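hey so i finaly got around to running the thing on Peptidoglycan glycosyltransferase from Lutispora saccharofermentans. pasting the sequence first so u can double check i didnt mess up the copy paste, my clipboard has been acting weird all day
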Amino acid sequence: MNDYIKRQNLVKCFFIIFFIGIVGYLLFFNFFQSKYIYSNSYNKRLRKENSDIIRGDIQDRSGVVLASSKIHKNTMQRNYAYGRSFSHIIGYSAKALGSTGIEALYNQELASANAIETLKGKAKGEKIKGNTVKLTLDKTLQVYSSDLLKGKKGAIAALNPKTGEILALVSKPDYNPSNVTENWNDLIEDKNSPLLNRALDGLYPPGSIFKVITTSSALNNNYKDFEIDCSGKINIEGYEIKDSNDKAHGQIDLNRAFTLSCNSYFVSLGLELGNNNLYNEAIKFKFNKGIQGDIKSKTSSFTKKNDNKALAQQSIGQGDVLITPIHAAAIAAIIANDGVLAPPYMVSEITDMTGKPIKSFKPKAGEKIISKENAEIIKSMMIDVVETGTGRNARISGSKAAGKTGTAENPQGKAHSWFIGFAPAEDPQIAIAVIVENGGSGGSNAAPIAGKVMKKALSVIDQ
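ok and heres what it spat out for the 3d tokens, dont ask me to read them lol
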């Protein structure tokens, strides 16, 4: 009898645990995953339009209309005023293909309207306009940034480091969302992947921009005064890592090594720090976790290793370290914002057809990543990079900028060109990441683009 009761209790426990698991999954799905599953372009629900509602507008931060709809011969046509410049952010809404980008993520809002106005419209036999989605992006800065990357492969991500508002998000190559249906076969077969949003979903070796994290780990573990005698190259268990142009820097400390992006120094520093310290610092900076906010992006990765060769590569952002451009911009923003990460977001408000706010999105509470003291030290180093180091091409007339260059080795071809930074250094209003695929030197190719975007941002945002 006791055995029977025990078995009965085990069965009860199994079903209780099973039930709790299902409830837990449903809660997780509804609160964290449902919007993104709903917005997937393969979701057939996105292909069904409410015939009584004209799809709402998408606007920039100043109210400039970026996407709108009109009825032509009883067919709803979607117009993208700035076409390619916003193609990856706004996405497309096509009856045959579904939706992507903001068009998909906020499909429900764009395709619905106030219930009373909807009833009035039906009674009059008129179509009414759907809700409007307002973005944090600036049209002028977005178009300007898009033009700077024209003819290249890569991405630009720019945000306000204090609030997390995304100001520009560019991916190249791009496509024309107005004729995506007609060109669909060509787009999906294009080896350059124009449909890929590189700013959010491109994963790249960070190269020397990762030295920001290695430096943070050094400061956190009392290696601020670490020095080496740089000969221009370093050999780790038969694997040789060279400095740019094999240049020997001689006796060098942390600040100068950061300014000159000395590989030999940072490899030596990484070996001193050890696997655990570097891994833990990467996790603090949101590797393997992802940055929070209203955006959905790939997760940057840092694998914990136990051998010196792998550690040497990781210390300078090579090996199996991968990062997205939006995450790289967030790292720059952390340093700019006294060690605090303001989660990036790109939708500021949803309004109805009369302009009445339905929902407003405010900056989320920031998360402290590193101490203000350490952020100030790294900020000073990043200023030196732009003033006297490898990032001189990012200098801005009339304003002091800060940054870090990166030249990331690429097994498929020429190195990728990186720059992350912010401006003005004393009161940052913009943080940025620029990557030019196969661009070579970060100081020669990504830095000039970043400098131009930062200068433009300071002249147009909230003016």
